[in-house]
Amino acid sequence: MNDQANSVDERYEAAAPAELSSWNRHDTTWMLGLFGTAIGAGTLFLPINAGLGGFWPLVVLALLAFPMTFFAHRGLTRFVLSGREGADITEVVEQHFGIKAGALITLLYFFAIFPILLIYSVGLTNTVASFLEHQLHITPPPRVLLSFVLILGLLAVVRCGEQAIVKAMSLMVYPFIVALLFLAVYLIPHWNGGILTTVSQVPAPSALLHTLWLAIPVMVFSFNHSPIISAFAVDQKRRYGANAQQRSSQILCRAHLLMVVMVLFFVFSCVLTLSPEQLAEAKAQNLSILSYLANHFSNPTIAFAAPLIAFVAISKSFLGHYIGASEGLKGLIVKSGQRPGAKALDRIVAAFMLVVCWIVATLNPSILGMIETIGGPVIAAILFLMPMYAIRKVPAMARYRGQASNVFVTAVGLVAISALIYSLTA
């Protein structure tokens, strides 16, 4: 019997590389989960930020979008895969750089992601309250009750487990893709040249570089899905073993192609419809592109579609960022010397998330700009610079040395951090 079982195991192991060549539902689910984490509320502000610089900077940003996002997230995935079996990003940092560095990165990782979760809690409550009041003409319930119900509903999905989160996000991606396509196509008859009026205005090299310098962080963080990369890498290693790096790169490549094509079509459709002056007006009013378009066209279809799309976008991103935030918080609790059981730890983390997100959503603070400037440099350091440093220093990642993409990722990371620090101090 044992010999028979061993022969079955040997056949299974021999077949593993062949199975890698065939794409499966699990891979599609992760591809859409990565898309769902990255493409969220930030996408709805990207046309404003990316289009303000004029035509040529936008073209350069469009060309840089795929390599910026793919190489950076692939590097972080490789970093997590370089650790021992089942180790998440905080454990891999500790394994490679020591206990003190592991504790520091865990702290930074948590405080880079958790504030974004708070923003989504506020944004979700505002979106639903506005939809009830202005589109359905229903008086929304008290904010303290509405925020509690919404966050509790999302945490109910979380309680079903990581795979349930990824599946829920992948399902929510479909209506979001359809909605983005609908809006982009809907705007085509309204294209009036928009940003094309600036084609003849070729900026001086110094002005172009300055514009790109300040715009790159917007592009980077509009496509950021680093909070879910650790869980993604752990799952790939558990499923594919030695082939995890190859398959995860395939999934990341397809996810980023989907992101870039979809988002850039939406961005160009918006900037071909609105003039640079109108984009500046939207930024001054602190509105997403959907809200500005709804006001611009006074169209009931857009008025109804905009908040629904925003709801899906924010919910997707909330779930994806929850994975990263909870992972960081669990790491902090364990590194503090506390050793609760797995179920008790999950309950503690969920209760903390619920209470803090509920309080912040109820108070409705205006913290978006502050969080972006504080969390941005930390995310850039973790996503761009830490994996590249590990490639240089960690023996387990030595095989990735000497690649041109490493120089590119390092340069973009330094540009993103320096531009965000400049924006904070200017």
From TrEMBL:
It is a multi-pass membrane protein. One of its GO terms (cellular component) is plasma membrane. Pfam families: Trp_Tyr_perm. InterPro entries: Amino_acid_transport_2, Hydroxy_aa_transpt. It comes from the Bacteria. It catalyses: L-serine(in) + H(+)(in) = L-serine(out) + H(+)(out). The chain crosses the membrane at residues 30-48, 54-76, 97-123, 143-161, 173-191, 211-234, 255-274, 302-323, 344-361, 367-386, 407-425. GO terms for molecular function: amino acid transmembrane transporter activity; symporter activity. Its main location: membrane. NCBIfam families: stp (TIGR00814). PANTHER family: SERINE TRANSPORTER (PTHR35334), SERINE TRANSPORTER SDAC (PTHR35334:SF2). This is Stp: Hydroxy amino acid transporter.
